[in-house]
Amino acid sequence: MRAEATKRVALVFSLFDADGNGVLQAEDFALMADRVVEAAPAADESARDAMRAAFRQYWTTLLTELDADHDGEISFAEYTACVLSPARFDATIDAFAQALAALGDPDGDGLIERPAFVALMTAIGFEHGNIEALFDAFGPSDEDRIQVATWAEGIKEYYAPDKAGIPGDHLVAGATV
Predict the structure, then answer these.
(1) Any bridge partners for residue 112, and if so which?
(2) What is the dihedral of CA 61, 64, 66, 67, to 10 degrees?
(3) Is the pLDDT of residue 1 over 60?
(4) Residue 126 and residue 174: Cα distance in Å, rounded?
(5) Burial class of residue 77 in the structure, from the number of CB atoms within 10 Å of its CB (0-12 exposed, 13-18 middle, 19+ buried)
(6) Residue 169: HSE in the Cβ half-sphere, 13 Å Cα cutoff
(7) CA-CA distance, 141 to 4, in Å (whole number)?
């Protein structure tokens, strides 16, 4: 497992721990889903529902795969063991990536405009400068848009334990985790 991957997931863990108590709980994912959906006012209800479902699936996968003591909480060590294990988490990340990228494309043209991308990533909790660096790393068009597929693939890459030097690394640049 690469150090870059560990830093990426440490950052996501800290962002998903919405109440800051050091563990992930169902309430954290419900709160995060609400924040992200609210950041996409132009999205249709099916895209919003898909995003909420993806957050529920994310939580359910963690709970099913990791909560051996059935306390309803996931520690950082437990989280890292699951999300950096492709066999255990790829389907969940794929659903999450597709839902988030689709939420950023309310007109369905296959393109995500910078303001929508920034709004969604800010709702998750990433730093503004890092969000901008990530968008630029995805190679936006002259109209300042990126492909939905590019973002979805970038999300999946973010969780790959063997990847380094990927666009997602921009999210942890300068971040303290």
Answers:
(1) 146
(2) 130
(3) no
(4) 12
(5) exposed
(6) 12
(7) 28
